[in-house]
């Protein structure tokens, strides 16, 4: 009997050192398993005198019940402890700064190019493209600039060979389109052009949008109407527009188109060189010589053409004073548009 009761104490003592569920399971087997210390005490039952037997059996069962209770209690404590440990080990530090993934965005030049294209499409123009590596014939000759023409000097040309150049303007697209299509034509041709020039207002590669319209009765007033509508849509409806006589070999008469300087409101500043006006476009009535080059009858057809620099339009629209900013890929600059 005493031995049975002492099992309580030895269990209690041993249970104090248990630190895991696995250890507890071992202890459970040791005391309550088939060959466990408590279980084996029941085997003595038959050898005990009948008077003491009930008392003995009761005591063994009491001890068994007590140990079971203790095991359950320790088990739930250990489970709680485990749960706490897991939560701590899986905890997230929500005060850590997040990982930053920068987003790309449309380049300001592409944005302005889309805007220009959108406006002309709304006026019924179609978009055509031409090659950036161009034949001398399309870039110059067919535009009424033969090899010895002095106007070639205005464009610092990158020559690939005697007959092949990097196009210096988008005007050759006029010739390519007119060679394969018959009037009426209402075309714009956006794209990259190249000139050997670099400073605060020139980069060796830049963008132009060419435009032209050919039909049987197109006049200079059509040119004025289309360009004024475009300028008022791209800038503001009250932007002052000025047509100034000029010269291009492929147009006659030719004009340069200025807008009132947006930097000083036409009062005169360093950007407009105190004139109050800024040039944004070259244009004119298509020279009959150009029509002859593509096999159009100049007695039947007439047209106008124009060309503008996209970087320049973007600089005026967003008050940017250095063209090189567009190509330095500094995100602090590019993110502003
Ligand atoms: N191609 C000219 C240049 O790059 C711009 C230009 C002027 C285009 C007059 C035209 C035009 O179509 O009619 O300087």
Overview of the structural elements:
The protein is α+β, with helices and mostly antiparallel strands. It folds into two domains: 2-90; 108-334, Bira Bifunctional Protein, Domain 2 (BirA Bifunctional Protein, domain 2, 2-Layer Sandwich), CATH 3.30.930.10. The chain has helices at 2-16, 21-32, 37-42, 53-89, 108-122, 136-139, 172-180, 220-234, 288-294, 310-318, 331-334; strands spanning 126-127, 133-135, 164-166, 185-194, 205-215, 241-248, 251-260, 277-286, 302-309. It has a seven-stranded mixed sheet with strand order 1-4-5-9-8-7-6, with helices on both faces. A two-stranded antiparallel ribbon has the order 2-3. The termini are far apart. It binds 3,4-dihydroxyphenylalanine. 3,4-dihydroxyphenylalanine binds next to β8 and β9. 3,4-dihydroxyphenylalanine is lined by residues 169, 171, 210, 248, 251, 282-284, 305-307.
Strand order in the largest sheet = 1-4-5-9-8-7-6
CATH class bucket of the largest domain: Alpha Beta
Bound compounds: 3,4-dihydroxyphenylalanine
β content, as a range?
15-25%
The CATH H-level homologous superfamily of the largest domain: Bira Bifunctional Protein, Domain 2
Please give the number of β-strands.
9
Major pleated sheet = 7 strands, mixed
The class by helix and strand makeup works out as alpha+beta
Query: How many separate domains make up the residues?
Result: 2
Give the helix proportion (percent range): 25-40%
Which fold name corresponds to the CATH topology of the largest domain?
BirA Bifunctional Protein, domain 2
The total count of helices amounts to 11
Distance between the termini: 93 Å
The CATH architecture assignment of the largest domain turns out to be: 2-Layer Sandwich
